[in-house]
Specification:
Length: 253
């Protein structure tokens, strides 16, 4: 069976673009809901996603998690940076990886435009990034609120989805300002791929590393750059453990 080849122009290309890439967050959008009924149904959805994730990880995608014990070093909230290579897995895997902490995933507003599922994502824990400065303040407060609650904030600094990609693309610097503000510890989750003996799609192994902390002796800019370098180095080191290229990505000349 021939290997699938996908061609790209640059690293800003997205191979899983939704039909509503121009979806805008409503003017009255709320990142944190304190309504008792909303929170009740959000709790039920959290349990449903946990069950779905367990089935997906064990019976569908054959996912294993290595070094999960490092997360126990942080009693409060923390950030997890990860490479973005699974369409469904990058949405649900954080729920089992971080259990019993609730994961809140920073994402593009276009995800909320997905038919049916898009309306459930905020209730499950999606934190869409606004496109204006006024809403950015409310968004930043929501991120800090979830961290202070002791939850996990999930960030995909590559931004764009490249299914089953085995290398690490450039990480966007803007994705690293969150820990500088809240001082919460940072972990890295790197998804790698190995050939399966029984299935067409590769076996998935997710490696966890950390914690990495914000250097208080540096300026905000330098501390952000240092954190980005440490996260990128950890990802690149783990990415070398991918031994099977299910899809080949080639730059179009």
């Amino acid at each position: 069976m021939s290997q699938e080849v996908r061609y790209y122009q640059n690293y800003d290309q997205d191979f899983a673009a939704t039909r509503r890439q121009d979806f805008k967050i409503p003017a009255n959008y709320q990142w944190v809901h304190k309504n008792i009924f909303y929170r009740f149904f959000a709790s039920l959805l959290y349990l449903v996603v946990i069950v779905i994730n367990l089935i997906y990880m064990k019976l569908v995608a054959h996912v294993s998690i290595k070094n999960r014990r490092v997360l126990r070093q942080s009693k409060g909230g923390y950030y997890i940076y990860s490479n973005h290579t699974l369409l469904f897995g990058d949405v649900v895997n954080p729920f089992c990886i971080n259990f019993p902490k609730h994961p809140y995933i920073i994402c593009s507003p276009s995800n909320l435009g997905i038919p049916v599922l898009g309306k459930l994502l905020p209730m499950a824990g999606a934190l869409p990034i606004p496109d204006n400065l006024h809403d950015m303040a409310k968004f930043s407060k929501a991120v800090s609120y979830r961290i202070n609650q002791g939850n996990a904030i999930i960030i995909y600094p590559e931004e764009h989805l490249w299914p089953f990609y085995t290398k690490i693309r450039p990480l966007h610097e803007a994705a690293f300002h969150y820990p500088i503000k809240t001082k919460a510890p940072v972990y890295v989750a790197t998804t790698t791929y190995q050939k399966s003996r029984f299935y067409k799609k590769p076996k998935i192994t997710i490696y966890l590393d950390g914690p990495f902390t914000v250097d208080q002796n540096l300026s905000r800019k330098d501390a952000q750059t240092k954190l980005q370098t440490e996260v990128e180095k950890a990802m690149q080191s783990r990415a070398k453990l991918s031994t099977y290229e299910f899809i080949s990505y080639q730059k179009r000349s």
